[in-house]
Each structure stands twice: as structure tokens, then as C-alpha cells.
Specification:
Elements (H helix, E strand, L loop, with lengths): L2 H23 L2 E9 L4 E5 L6 H14 L7 E10 L7 E6 L7 E2 L10 E4 H6 L7 E7 L3
Parallel strand pairs: 1-7, 5-6
Antiparallel strand pairs: 1-2, 2-4, 3-4, 3-6
Length: about 140
């Protein structure tokens, strides 16, 4: 075989393998602590650079997996502020109770009290194009 053919075969085998390896190692696992306050209210604590999308995702996972609710809404009770459980860190208080003057929104921010997503919408944010995995760690109150 000619050297040029060998190089092309080598590249044809190597390039797809390299792309797959990068995709595997670029996945990030983000663990976001959640602290239950009462049966309906909980605090999601920022961790690993989590933003609004990840906070909503963690809230949705908590409601689905730990509160065992399949429908309903999640509302920002207290917007992003200093954490009650962890001084020096930021958190958001969410509730599944109906909140007066709540607003339905498509914005993924967590800086507006009363902002409401359906549980389904919050969980849908976990399946984004960013390719990271979000795990919820429930803290004992």
C-alpha cells in the first residue's frame, strides 16, 4: 500500500474515535443540594456554578423523585439570595403550594418571586443540549 492510503485509513479510524472520547469526557456531573423546609417548600442551593436552568431542573427532579408529584406547579417563593442552610452561598426557595400573584413564565431565571413553571417544564430543562447530568442531593433539615 502507498503511504498516502495508509494515512487516510489511519485518519478514518482515528478521527471518529477521538470525537467519541471527547464527548464522553466532556460530560459534567453537577450535584445540587436541596434542603426540605416543610412538605411543600424546599431550598435549592447553588453548587458547581449552577445557573437558573440547573436550579429549575433540580427543583423539578426533587418534586418528581422525592415528593413523588407528577403534575402541578413549582413556584419561586424567595428569589436567589443568601442561603439559610449554608451561609455564604446562594439559594432559591421553591414551593409547590399555590402562591398568590404568581406568574407563569418561560424565563429560566430565579430572581423573580412568584415565577411559576409546571413540574413537567422544570424537568424538561434537565434534558438540554449542554450534555451535563444534574444530580439532586437531599439534605437532612
Amino acid at each position: 500500500m502507498r503511504p498516502r492510503t495508509l494515512i487516510l485509513i489511519f485518519l478514518a479510524i482515528l478521527l471518529p474515535t477521538t470525537v467519541l472520547a471527547q464527548r464522553f469526557f466532556l460530560r459534567e456531573i453537577m450535584i445540587i443540594p436541596v434542603r426540605p423546609i416543610d412538605t411543600d417548600t424546599f431550598e435549592v442551593i447553588e453548587n458547581d456554578g449552577a445557573g437558573g436552568t440547573q436550579m429549575w431542573c433540580a427543583a423539578g427532579k426533587y418534586v418528581r423523585d422525592y415528593q413523588r408529584q407528577r403534575g402541578g406547579s413549582i413556584t419561586v417563593l424567595t428569589p436567589r439570595a443568601s442561603s439559610v442552610a449554608y451561609p455564604g452561598r446562594k439559594s432559591v426557595m421553591f414551593t409547590t403550594k399555590p402562591v398568590e400573584n404568581s406568574i407563569s413564565s418561560t424565563s429560566q431565571g430565579v430572581r423573580t418571586a412568584g415565577q411559576t413553571f409546571s413540574t413537567t417544564h422544570a424537568n424538561a430543562l434537565c434534558r438540554s443540549r449542554h450534555d451535563f447530568y444534574i444530580k439532586v442531593r437531599v439534605l437532612v433539615p
